[in-house]
Design a protein that fits this description.
Number of strands: 5
Oligomer: single chain
Order of helices and strands: HHHHEEEEHHEH
Strand order of the largest sheet: 2-3-4
Low-confidence stretches: 191-196
Structural class: mainly alpha
Helix content: 25-40%
Mean pLDDT: 83
Distance between the termini: 19 Å
Length: 196
């Protein structure tokens, strides 16, 4: 059975003589990556660095774009790639991005905390997770975590979609933000989504 990209699914082998394979990955083109990175920089960076015309050589035509101008433009552009934190933050968001869910979270924050003491919290089938250092990337968003959650962060990123999420694994306020974004569901919501 072929399931096209963008369709959430959860395959289960129902006998000993069959297997279920699910291969999914993002393979953005260079153009997509450059465009997305430029947009990320525009949103995140208010750099005061600007292009300045290099001093012109005597006898050079005033309208000529020479090798020095090209070199300076290249240096300005490539300097944005030298900051590993900026690059990691952008790349984590890009690789975990998914189209937003149409339905907003049903529970407000107070209701959410009460409900998760009675019903399991579940990782959505469509969730995309990654981490870099102490930063969690979930469905195209990033959240920095305190150092004491490093083990929990790694364990969270190992969870299979549809798995119950231990409540101690991440800070409570982050669990709610992930619920608001559709990365986490309350168990009865997960069952409703499976029936649709």
């Amino acid at each position: 059975l072929y399931i096209p990209p963008g369709c959430a699914h959860w395959g289960i082998a129902e006998s000993d003589d069959c297997i279920t394979l699910s291969v999914g990955f993002r393979a953005p083109s260079q153009t997509e990556m450059l465009q997305d990175f430029a947009e990320h920089l525009a949103e995140q960076n208010d750099s005061a660095r600007r292009y300045c015309d290099p001093s012109s050589n005597a006898g050079q035509h005033c309208g000529e774009i020479d090798a020095n101008a090209i070199s300076q433009a290249r240096q300005l552009m490539t300097s944005a790639l030298e900051d590993d934190n900026t690059l990691a933050n952008w790349f984590g968001r890009l690789m975990t991005h998914r189209p937003p869910e149409a339905e907003p979270a049903e529970l407000n924050e107070t209701e959410f905390y009460k409900t998760i003491t009675r019903q399991p919290l579940v990782l959505a089938l469509t969730a995309r997770l990654a981490f870099h250092g102490k930063v969690l990337f979930a469905d195209g968003e990033s959240d920095a975590l305190p150092a004491n959650y490093q083990d929990g962060l790694q364990a969270f990123c190992r969870l299979e979609p549809g798995s119950d999420v231990p409540l101690h694994i991440l800070p409570q306020e982050l669990l709610y933000r992930l619920y608001e974004r559709g990365t986490l569901l309350v168990a009865e919501q997960a069952g409703e989504d499976d029936q649709d």
